[in-house]
Amino acid sequence: MTTARRRLVAIATAAVLLPSLSGCWAGFDAQTSMQANQAVGNGANMSTGDIEIRGATWVRNTANPAEATLTATFVNNSDVPDKLVKVEIEPPSPMGITGGELEVPVIGSLRTGYWSPNFINAFGVQAFPSTFVTTTFTFENAGTVTGDVFTTPNTGQYAGVAVSLVEQKKLQELVEQTDTTDDTTTTEKVAKAKKKKKAQAAGE
């Protein structure tokens, strides 16, 4: 690995070490927020062991098409937690995962890319717009699964997905400033952060 590539990977990893939240920058109640919180037709579904991956889609940054973040829901059907430890794409790209790995809870789910503090980022996507990217997911217990994941620009129903590290960082900072209790759910934290952003934009 070249020095420049190592530096890029280090920057990408550092940027997603702290939990980051994606959200709809168009507003708290915008339609794109509601759509981004649901599985969509373009999403890939696959499974390995007790883990299901639902609605996986690479959302690309129109300002920098080589940059993308994954929207997906990971479902754990086991009675023990599992961890997503690696994500790879073809052709190879520098990647970043929030915290380096993500835990999929017992009999629960993990979301990335929307209404979530978790991101899986690719920084060197080499594919034509609106095509499929071969993506491999590696879990600590469930093993590895590979599938073709659709790529789409962050427009239309994906306009609310924070793709760039700058946007992810902005929303993370906003969430950190938002008062929450220990039992506040992730969705509630995102909602409060968006409400605060809307109020700030309105000058309240």
Report what the structure shows.
The protein is 25% helix and 35% strand. The protein is an alpha+beta fold and 204 residues long. It has one domain (3-164, 182-195): PCu(A)C copper chaperone (Immunoglobulin-like), CATH 2.60.40. Strands 1, 2, 3, 4, 5, 6, 7, 8, 9 and 10 form a 10-stranded mixed beta sheet that branches. A hairpin with a 2-residue loop joins β2 (51-61) and β3 (64-76). The longest helix has 16 residues, at 186-201.
Provide the structure class. Answer: alpha+beta
Helix fraction bin: 10-25%
Cα shape: globular
Taking the alpha carbons of the first and last residues, their distance comes to 49 Å
Oligomer: single chain
Tally of strands: 10
CATH-level-4 superfamily name: PCu(A)C copper chaperone
The H/E string reads HHEEEEEEEEEEHH
CATH architecture grouping: Sandwich
Q: Count structural domains.
A: 1
Measured by DSSP, the beta-strand proportion falls in 25-35%
What composes the largest sheet? 10 strands, mixed
| CATH class category name | Mainly Beta
- Tell me the radius of gyration: 16 Å
Mean pLDDT comes to 77
Which stretches are low in confidence, meaning pLDDT under 50 for 5 or more residues running? 1-40
How many helices in DSSP terms? 4
